[in-house]
Amino acid sequence: MDSFQKSEDIHARVAAEINGISISDVTKAQRRDAKAVNFGLIYGVSPYGLSANTEMSVIEASEYIKKYFDLHPGIKKYMKEIVAYAQQHGYVETLFGRRREIPELQSGIMAVRNAAQRAAINMPIQGTAADMLKLAMVEIAKYLPKISPKSKLLLQVHDELVLEVPKKDAKKVGKLVKTAMENVYKLDAPIIANAAAGPSWGTTVGIKI
């Protein structure tokens, strides 16, 4: 949490912790490995899976994951508790109460059960993020016609929102979108959004708000 509140590079922070070095000494390869773990754990990555996505051996990947959980026991605790909850109740839910039923947890096939456990771990996290983005879209749709009548909210791509905006309105629409995304729901960790504009999605550059 301290790292998020300081706006540190979370992947570099984890790499530094695992390797026992300062953040400034973290290499690109070390950061890449830490990123694979940070994102992979959401999906219940195994040592085999981590090894396949990095240059680590299976043994090295297993040791890396163990070190990670030793340093952050709260994450391991969450994973165990959410799976136990899902097994008991048959579902998990987001911070806003949206449920996902997971009957596959009772499957007689181990591979199916394992996949269901990974879904139980992942859904409250990514589902809550999705809920927050939808709420931000509601706020944006409410105020966009007043700020820039010719602007249109086109689509959502993962954690991004794509809008079509007159060039002269780019900055004020960017401010609206950034404000909505960052403040739609307050968490202990700050939510940081960045705005970018350009003639096409692939040629956007950051704009200062």
TrEMBL record:
Gene3D superfamilies membership: 3.30.70.370, 5' to 3' exonuclease, C-terminal subdomain
Recorded GO MF terms: DNA binding; DNA-directed DNA polymerase activity
Catalytic activity: DNA(n) + a 2'-deoxyribonucleoside 5'-triphosphate = DNA(n+1) + diphosphate
EC code(s) of this entry: 2.7.7.7
InterPro entries: DNA-dir_DNA_pol_A_CS (IPR019760), DNA-dir_DNA_pol_A_palm_dom (IPR001098), DNA/RNA_pol_sf (IPR043502), DNA_polymerase_A (IPR002298)
UniProt-listed Pfam families: DNA_pol_A
Domain DNA-directed DNA polymerase family A palm: 1-169
Keywords: DNA replication, DNA-binding, DNA-directed DNA polymerase, Nucleotidyltransferase, Transferase
SMART domains: POLAc (SM00482)
GO biological process: DNA-templated DNA replication; double-strand break repair
PANTHER family noted in UniProt: DNA POLYMERASE I, DNA POLYMERASE NU
Record-stated family: Belongs to the DNA polymerase type-A family.
UniProt-recorded name of the protein: DNA-directed DNA polymerase
Organism: candidate division Kazan bacterium GW2011_GWA1_44_22
